[in-house]
Amino acid sequence: MKLRRLGRTNIEVFPIAFGGIPIQRVNEETAVKIVKRAIELGINLIDTARGYTDSEIKIGKALKGIDKKVYLSSKSANRTKDGIYEDVKISLKNLGINKIDIYHIHGVNDWETFKKIFEPDGAYFGLLKAKEEGLIDFIAVSSHSNDILAELIKTDKFDVIQVSYNFIEIEPEEKIFPLALEKDIGIIAMKPMAGGVLPNPRLSLKFVLQKEFILPDPGIESIEELEEDVEVALNLTPLTHEEWEEIERTRKEIGTTFCRKCDYCQPCPQGIPISTIIRSESFLKRLPESTIRQGWFYDAYLKAQNCTKCGICTTRCPYNLPIPDLIEKNVALVKEYLGE
C-alpha cells in the first residue's frame, strides 16, 4: 500500500481520509470506537469541521491515548478574521490538541464570500494569524463551486483544497486538478460517493482512488463502512470494462436529476436555497436529527414549500434539470421523513 503525498504540505497519508460528518449521527461511544478502528487500520488523516455539531468533540475523545501520528483537518465557515481565529481555538480545545495540521475556510461558494475572506478583517487573515502563532500548520479552503475554487487556487494562498469529486461530478478534472497540481496544492476529494447518492459505494470510491494525487474523504458512520472503504483502498486495481459500463449506466440514470451545486439557478424569487433542497436524500442520510428537524436544513425545507414553479431556475440550469419537479419531490421526501 502506497501512501499519498498531500501536495506541498508533504504530509504522507493513507489513501483515504476519515470524513467526520456522519459520526454526528451516532452516540459518543460508537463514534469513538469507529475513529479508533480507523486509526488501527492505518488511516492517518481525520477531517471534521466546527459546523459538524459534536464531531470535533467525539474525535478528540477518540484520540486520547493514541500514540500514532494522526493528522487533523478542521474547518470554519466564519468569514471574519477574529471569528475564525476564535474558531481555531475552539477546535483545538474540542480536539484536545495544541496544533491543527490543516484548517479550512469552509464553503467559499459565492463571489461575495470570496471577496469577504480577503478583506483586511477577513477569514484568511485570521488563519494567517493562527499559523503565525503556531496554532495551525497549513491554510486550506473548501468550495462547492468549481469556478470560485479555480480563482481561490490562483491566489496561491492555500496549501490544501477540498473539492467535490465523484464519477458524476467530473468537472474538476478540467477546471481544478491541473491548476492545483501546477501549484503543488494538496487535493482532498469530498463527497466521493456524492453524499451517499451513488448506488455502488465501492465502485464510487474506487473511481476516485484511480487518481493518486487525490485524497478521498468518505464520510463514515459505522465499522462496516470503514472496513469496506479501507479494503477498497488496500486492494486498488484499475477499473474494469464492466465497471466502466456500470459507471456509464449510473451516469445516464442519475445525470438527469443530479445537482452539481453550481447555484447558477439562483437567486430564487421565493428565496429557496435550491441546491440544498434538491439534495435532500443526501442530507437525510448524513445530517444529525437536530439539524434536519430544526436547523438550517429545516429552514430550507420550509422555504421550499413556497415554490410557485415559475420555472426561472430551469432556464438558468446548465444541466437542464427539472428543478421545480425536483423541489416538489424532495419536499415530499422530507415531509415523509419528518412524519408530517
From TrEMBL:
Pfam families linked to this entry: Aldo_ket_red (PF00248), Fer4_17 (PF13534)
Entry keywords, A to Z: Iron, Iron-sulfur, Metal-binding
Annotated transmembrane regions: none
A single MF term (Gene Ontology): iron-sulfur cluster binding
Domain 4Fe-4S ferredoxin-type: 298-327
Highest taxon, organism lineage: Bacteria
PANTHER family hit by this protein: D-THREO-ALDOSE 1-DEHYDROGENASE (PTHR43312), NADP-DEPENDENT OXIDOREDUCTASE DOMAIN-CONTAINING PROTEIN (PTHR43312:SF1)
Descriptive protein name: Aldo/keto reductase
Source species: Dictyoglomus thermophilum
